[in-house]
Amino acid sequence: MIMLLLIATILSIALLLWTGPRLLCPHLSPLWSGRKRVKLSFSPNQLSVYDITVVLGQLASRSIKRSLDVWWWYRDPESITLMDDSSLTMPVRTSQKDLDAYTLAVERTTQTNALWTGSKAMLFLSALTEPAMLLLLAETSCKLCPLGAVNVRNRFELLRPDLCTEHSLKSFSGAGVTASASKHVRRVRRGFEVDLLLTLDIPRGGSTGTITIFRQIFTILQFAKLNQKIARKDQSESDSQPLAYTRVASFDVEYEEPSRWARVCKDYNPIHISAIAAKLFGFSGKIAHGNHMVAKALDLLERCTLPPEYEALYRSQDPVWMEVVFKRPITVPAVLEVTVAKDDTISGSCSDLMPFRICKGGVCIEGKLGRLKDAES
Length: 377
Description:
Blueprint: H1 2-24, E1 37-39, H2 49-68, E2 87-91, H3 96-107, H4 118-138, E3 149-158, E4 176-181, E5 186-188, E6 191-203, E7 210-223, E8 245-253, H5 257-265, H6 270-273, H7 275-280, H8 290-301, H9 308-314, E9 320-326, E10 334-341, E11 353-360, E12 362-371
Parallel strand pairs: 1-2
Antiparallel strand pairs: 2-4, 3-7, 3-9, 4-6, 5-6, 6-7, 8-10, 9-12, 10-11, 11-12
Helix pairs in contact: 2-4, 3-5, 4-8
């Protein structure tokens, strides 16, 4: 009798886990349809805590299954198709509430007179659209194991800063984000890398079609023990002369700040929310979000005295790009230093490029802010 009750309990729990999300989250049902083109009807910033819990459950389930499939990691990566040309689209609706949440997460207050720069617009739009990446990873056809992977670098491109002003971002009309992934992985020393692409489009005024105003590339590293015959070394970052950096400012990160950023980008990964969970994953404490630290650092640079060329680039209203590489995790609380490259060590014009670093003992995040040429119109 006890055995029958145990079996019945297990089956009941399994049934609840299987049907619960589909009954209580019907708006997420397209993710489980198996279609190559998934279209959702809600905005990324409308994801609820329950929605995120369901999505994380899907990711955990897939990660467990993949970890048991040892053969997967020894296949020729050139033949591994991750997404089968799948994509996900969803509308983007913004309000003053979203801007306030972003400002609170970065500046700890909503009362600010800070300049709305291109870097600020890029990081706000990145946080706003990031949930689309999470949903893409949860889509049935995705074979990546998100809970066993890390975001190692990002590239942001603000193609139309004139359409991404603080005023226009308060109420996007007809905007939509599309998330897709590269079909094949890249073999690197520590496993596989795959690029996830997010594009934000708005209707073209007075005509048909859309305009891409923002683009972001997330690079995800899936750790794996590769067969030595197919493993390759990581791509070298640069063969150029190392740059010399100078300290320009420092800022502190409070213990609760990752939770504020999570409310903006919906990244409620346990390592960002709980010190206990972070320690279970091998970290010494709760981990800050990488993009959050970049946002805080660049916001601080606005208040600093920079070389004239950097100042012109930072405050430019032209299309801009930024790349960041996450080298070391940042545990909170923390005091971080922001450094910029000395302008006399940069080859070419430093009015078009500003290398920077965020450090805590060593380099934690390395980035470049640059002027984007030949942007889409």
